[in-house]
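Bumping my old thread because nobody answered last time. Still need a sequence for this structure:
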């Protein structure tokens, strides 16, 4: 005679809440009551043997263990989400770097950042319009691997310098070196998307927190 610890044969209180139904301790209590009732009413000619008892105990331990783990993971997820929101709020007003090619312009100076995958013997940064027309080129010469920055004098540009982009060309001898452009922007608000922290930037972009390369 095998008892199903999560079956529907047990008498339940229809007024119990969903939390009590899913609570591991309450579930284990119901199982023990069912087990005692089964022992009291077992067929003397076909009693419950040790193997059946062991199987049933293993089943309830597995179910309650999974329930406890689920509750623990849910609590951890909620705490992590709260910590993310607090961290996001602390970034409001701070400047951050995200992947992009927008030129940051302030006080007549254009500025940008980029990551070099390897050391380069020659690095050139083209300042270009949204249509791809080269306005000027900044010669940075040899640069080490890692994050680098550059400045460009935008005072002589007659158009809106805030619309300009940049493009990095890096080589080591005859071999091209991969360069990833980084744009600077200020965090103006925070939010959430599918449980993940998002940041609203002053350039209008909304990015996930994990896309932030650095906080300046």
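Sorry it took so long. Here it is:
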């Amino acid at each position: 005679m095998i008892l199903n610890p999560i079956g529907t044969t047990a008498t339940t209180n229809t007024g119990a809440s969903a939390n009590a139904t899913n609570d591991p301790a309450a579930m284990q209590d119901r199982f023990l009551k069912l087990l005692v009732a089964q022992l009291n009413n077992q067929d003397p000619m076909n009693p419950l043997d040790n193997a059946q008892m062991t199987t049933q105990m293993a089943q309830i331990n597995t179910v309650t263990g999974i329930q406890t783990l689920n509750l623990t993971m849910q609590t951890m997820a909620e705490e992590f989400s709260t910590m993310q929101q607090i961290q996001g709020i602390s970034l409001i007003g701070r400047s951050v770097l995200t992947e992009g090619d927008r030129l940051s312009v302030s006080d007549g100076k254009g500025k940008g950042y980029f990551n070099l995958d390897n050391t380069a013997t020659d690095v050139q940064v083209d300042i270009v319009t949204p249509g791809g027309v080269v306005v000027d080129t900044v010669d940075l010469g040899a640069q080490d691997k890692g994050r680098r920055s550059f400045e460009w004098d935008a005072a002589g540009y007659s158009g809106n310098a805030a619309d300009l982009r940049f493009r990095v060309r890096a080589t080591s001898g005859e071999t091209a070196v991969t360069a990833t452009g980084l744009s600077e922007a200020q965090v103006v608000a925070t939010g959430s998307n599918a449980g993940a922290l998002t940041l609203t930037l002053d350039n209008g972009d909304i990015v996930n927190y994990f896309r932030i390369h650095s906080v300046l």
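Confidence is low (pLDDT under 50) at residues 1-12. Let me know if any region looks off to you.
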